[in-house]
Structure formats: C-alpha cells, structure tokens
Amino acid sequence: MQPNYLSPVLPPLLFLSHCQESTGKFFWKKRRLCKHNPRACKRFSSHHSCCFKRYCVNIYANPSHCGSCGHVCKYGKRCCDGACVDTMKDTRHCGSCGRHCPQGEICVFGMCGYG
C-alpha cells in the first residue's frame, strides 16, 4: 500500500506552523494586512515590521528576523531586543531574554554566578 502524501491533515499543519508569531498566537490576518499597508504592523506593537512586503514580524524577538527582516541568528543564539545574543553567557540576557545578572556576577551556562 502506498502512503497518501496528499493527506487532508497535512495542509492545515503546514498552515499552522507558518502562521504563528513568537507569542504563539495566530496572525494570518496580520500577514494579509501588511501586503497592502506596511504601516499596519505598527498597530500590533512598535516592535513589529512588515517583512518582504508580506507579513508582520516582531523583529525584537523573532530569530529569523532579528533586528531587521531576514537577519537570522546563528545556531545557539536567541533574538533579544532585536539583537542575536548567547543566553548561555550574556549577563543582560542570562538564560532568557531580559534576565539580568546582579552586578559583579557573570553568566555561565545560562545561570548567574554559577561556579
């Protein structure tokens, strides 16, 4: 028996994976708004930008569009405040975005003052 590659389940799964932003909320309508009105993205937040004249992206948190459309963070880095950072050793983003280490402590393995 041959597998059914045109399963009715497959297209919705592909649709869902491509239509989520970093918050996990669906934003298909946001994508369509941007095509004809690039400034429409700013109504969601000042961190959103219209990428490729098609869809709204949070350029402060999306690792595929970090700081600007199409700027991809390297492996192991996250997009925090529009910059690609290594949350395993960045003292301003230790373990997660925005988690600051106390003054004098360093970030090691995503933990402040480890070791």
* Spatial order of the strands forming the largest sheet: 1-2
- Number of continuous helical runs: 2
What percent strand?
15-25%
Coarse morphology: elongated
Uncertain residue ranges: 1-24, 26-32
The helical percent reads: 10-25%
Average pLDDT across residues?
A: 76
Number-wise, the strands total 6
- Quaternary structure of the protein: single chain
What order do the helices and strands follow?
HHEEEEEE
Give structural notes:
This protein is of the alpha+beta class. The chain is built from 2 helices and 6 strands, in the order ααββββββ. The chain has a two-stranded antiparallel sheet. The longest helix has 9 residues. The N terminus is likely disordered.
Task: Using brief descriptors, characterize the structure shown.
two-stranded antiparallel sheet, 16% helix, disordered N terminus
Blueprint (SSEs and pairs):
Elements: H1 10-18, H2 28-36, E1 48-51, E2 55-58, E3 78-80, E4 83-85, E5 107-108, E6 111-112
Antiparallel strand pairs: 1-2, 3-4, 5-6
